[in-house]
Specification:
The protein has 290 residues and is of the alpha/beta class. The chain has helices at residues 12-21, 60-70, 90-110, 143-160, 184-193, 212-222, 243-253, 281-286; strands at 2-7, 27-33, 51-54, 74-77, 115-121, 165-171, 173-175, 199-200, 206-207, 209-211, 231-235, 241-242, 262-263. The longest helix is centred in the middle third of the chain and has 21 residues, at 90-110.
Length: 290
């Protein structure tokens, strides 16, 4: 049996990854959570989870004790904080994104994990005018991006200097099932299901949207890919869309194309870029069948 540990398992990306892993017969699945975590996204797969490990990832002693006991072969580190507008506590952003990552990776290395898959963010790049490459200079414009970049850099350093194979999946804009209702895709779908006009921000704002199913496939397949330990790998569609284009796509799929959104009702992000597109050359070379 292959022992796998997933952090951030009750969140949008984490829950989708856990659901996919729960279908594998040769897997012993461990997930971390806080006592206050909401397990609604995982309700139907709880019987397939070997153990829910209640832990504070910012506590180094707790993390090392857990990894010593479980000794996972693969660690998927998906826990994050600060990506939502209301997540502004800088101490918690620092603890969750940087300290937790360093504790987990150090413990994974010490206790013999073969693979450590870190989760990064396109926010690490900052504002760019061309498709974002992993080799670009990163210039994050907020504290969240700074902490995610610091964690990525730590994973790169340790990956190059340890026997554990480490990479960071730098996610762009995943969307789909189980997404938080306040997020763009979910808010559009929920409004259209009620035949209401969604309240959106700017029609010409851009994102590199990628279906959560494809993101999950990357997490599943990357452990067997021939990446260099320490690598950073963009995970996006490779093509940006405007919010209006994204809305039109969803509305058409739902047969609700006659419903027009109300623009300017939702607040836009600060530092809204004109370009938000992943260069996915590396991803395609590693996972050509994706």
């Amino acid at each position: 049996m292959k022992r796998i540990l997933v952090t951030g398992a009750t969140g949008f990306v984490g829950a989708n990854v856990v659901k996919a892993l729960s279908l594998k017969k040769d897997t012993e699945l461990y997930v971390t959570a806080r006592r206050t975590s909401d397990f609604r996204r995982l309700a139907d797969v709880m019987p397939q989870i070997k153990e829910v490990c209640y832990i504070q990832l910012e506590d180094r002693e707790q993390v090392f004790a857990l990894l010593e006991r479980v000794k996972p072969e693969i660690v998927y580190h998906i826990a994050t904080y600060g990506g939502f507008p209301n997540q502004t506590d800088q101490i918690q952003i620092l603890q969750t994104n940087l300290l937790a990552t360093t504790h987990l990776l150090d413990a994974a290395i010490q206790y013999g994990a073969t693979s450590f898959i870190n989760t990064g963010s396109s926010s690490e790049y900052g504002i760019k005018s061309t498709p974002m490459k992993e080799t670009d200079l990163c210039e994050p414009v907020n504290f969240y991006g700074i902490t995610k970049l610091a964690a990525t850099n730590y994973c790169t350093m340790q990956g190059k200097n340890s026997l554990t194979k480490v990479c960071t999946l730098r996610l762009f804009s995943p969307y789909g099932e189980l997404e938080d209702p306040t997020r763009l895709y979910a808010s559009i779908v929920n409004s259209l299901l009620k035949n209401e006009r969604p309240k959106l921000s700017r029609p010409h704002s851009v994102r590199d949207f990628i279906e959560i199913e494809k993101v999950v496939q990357v997490y599943e397949q990357i452990v067997d890919a021939n990446f260099q330990s320490g690598d950073v790998i963009n995970v996006g569609s490779g093509k940006q869309q405007t919010i209006q284009e994204f809305y039109n796509l969803i509305a058409k799929k739902m047969d609700k194309a006659d419903i027009e959104p109300i623009w300017g009702e939702a607040p836009p992000r600060a530092n809204e870029p004109e370009m938000w597109e992943a260069d996915i050359t590396k991803l395609k070379s590693l996972l050509p069948n994706l």
